[in-house]
Amino acid sequence: MRVLEIGSQSWEWSLFRYNYRPRQLTCINISEAELEIGRMHAKKLGVSCDFRRMDAHGLEFADGSLDFVFGVAILHHLEFPRALGEIHRVLRCGGKIVLVEPLRHNPVARLVRWMTPQWVERHEIGWVVIDPSPKSLSWTHNGQLWQIARSDRNG
Questions:
Q1: Residue 108 to residues 15, 115, 119, 134: CA-CA distances in angstroms?
Q2: I need a labelling partner for 19 at 20 to 30 A (CA). Which of 45, 49, 93, 151 fits?
């Protein structure tokens, strides 16, 4: 399985902690400093990862070449529709996307929870629900439904 992390430091606790070892793991980040932290951590654990400086808005992978794409605490760094269009392009038909925004420790989110407890009970973690079908990619984000048509591709 070919896996991409958008970011460079969540792979250890989100994949390896659960004994999931993909055949190929690539971690991307626009920050060389963040990539270096990821490289040092991987070396310390004896893990083989391909760390690349790359922007999620212009992924340098072939169409349909990835099986699984994930990211943790990265959505606020992205132009959401543009980045998801790129992820959709490189994801194989039937591939999976998981993007998680942990809001529990965010100071702004804490203030919002304190001011609006009736609303926040349902929103402790900002999950993005994504359906990567062969013909289109649809997701909900902040209560809004988005959809991107997939270019003609086998599958």
A1: 28, 11, 15, 37
A2: 93
Q: How many residues does the chain have?
A: 155
Tell me the domain boundaries of the chain: 2-149
Short-list 88, 69, 80, CA closest to 10: 69
Buried b (16+ CB within 10 A) or exposed e, 114-151: eeeeeeeeeeeebebebebeeeebbbebeeeebebebe
**Structure confidence at residue 84 as a pLDDT band (50, 70, 90):** confident
Per-residue model confidence (pLDDT) at position 98: 81
User: Which residues lie below 8 Å from residue 45, measured CB to CB, with a gap of 6+?
Assistant: 12, 16
The candidate with the shortest Cα–Cα distance to 28, out of 71, 88, 90, is 71
Q: How many other C-beta atoms can be found within 10 angstroms of the C-beta atom of residue 4?
A: 29
CATH 3.40.50.150 matches 2-149: yes
pTM for this predicted structure? 0.69
Per-residue model confidence as pLDDT tens digits over 99-130: 777 666 667 666 766 666 554 444 443 444 44
**27 in Cβ contact with 7 (< 8 Å):** yes
Spacing of C-alpha 150 from chain mean position: 19
